[in-house]
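Sorry to interrupt, but I need a hand with the structure work. Leave the record below and I will have a look:
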Amino acid sequence: RASQQGAGGGDGGAGSSAAETPSSQDFSLSLLDTNLPAEAETELRSFIAKRLTKGALFEGMGNVVSVELSIPECKVGCYYCRFQQENLLEMAALDSDVNTPEYVVCFLGGSEKEDTFRLELDKYIQSLKINLVLEQKTLETHVNPYLRSWFENAICPIQRVVQLFQEKLAFLLHAALSYTPVEVKNADEKTEKDISRFLAVAGLQGLVQEGTMTSLCIAMTEEQHKSMIVDCSGPQPQFHNAGSNKFCEDWMHAFVNGAEGGNPFLFRQILENFKLKAIQDINNLKRFIRQAEMNHYALFKCYMFLKNCGSGDILLKIVKVEHAEMPEAKNVVTVLEEFMRE
């Protein structure tokens, strides 16, 4: 069934296709929804069939590859994911006679850059999997619109946040990096979700130790006693209890300068580079602190690094939490805190 609307994006055309495949060796693919031309859809179905035959599709785990189809682009990036309906999986667990059909969803973009958003697309499919009820009415009112909106809902939130906040984006970057709680007021549901997704992607979750992250969240909450508030009631968002530093302001300019091209994949790459630089700075500071435990000159290097890196306020809080149980390192951090206050 052809979709009425393709999801256009800054990286070229985008499309979606969903197919059902019975769970057996002799499977067949039946089309549920697509916005591809007939010839390209047949080629895509053939590609997916080959992947299924090879056992290369794992339930709930998306993949991104480059495929050649009979559409204007020579090659397109294809995210594809195989899944089963959540409620039928539960029934099958109770009754082995219940047949649970399997589904494959494909999202096509202008390149393999969808890989940057693979986790977001996996979550997007997970939501579909939970809510999927393939009655004709539900298919037309929920499933098909959901599939057609994949690019806007899963790929574009970061871009929309950049365009909304512009120079004030530095406040959001600082909040994400410092684990500061953020409260959004007077925003529509879409904007609130966009901000939440941006903060989740911009934070260092998964890149620093889990215990450190938890302790830092507690420490920041206790220290500030209040969240950063984003008020979206006016034409421009207003911030209260916001913080920033040179590091976040420099990276904000990278986002704002990239906004001219309007490419969501570029924004995501900038965000990944932002996090990578933050992690590099944290690791450098840790190395300097280890050296400073035995060397006063290294202590001075620590101090100069914190003064010049642009995010000394945040880095010092992170390493303070990580070194809380290490007396010698803790002493170095205490001295650095005193220097930074002067």
Confidence is low (pLDDT under 50) at residues 1-14. The radius of gyration is 24 Å.
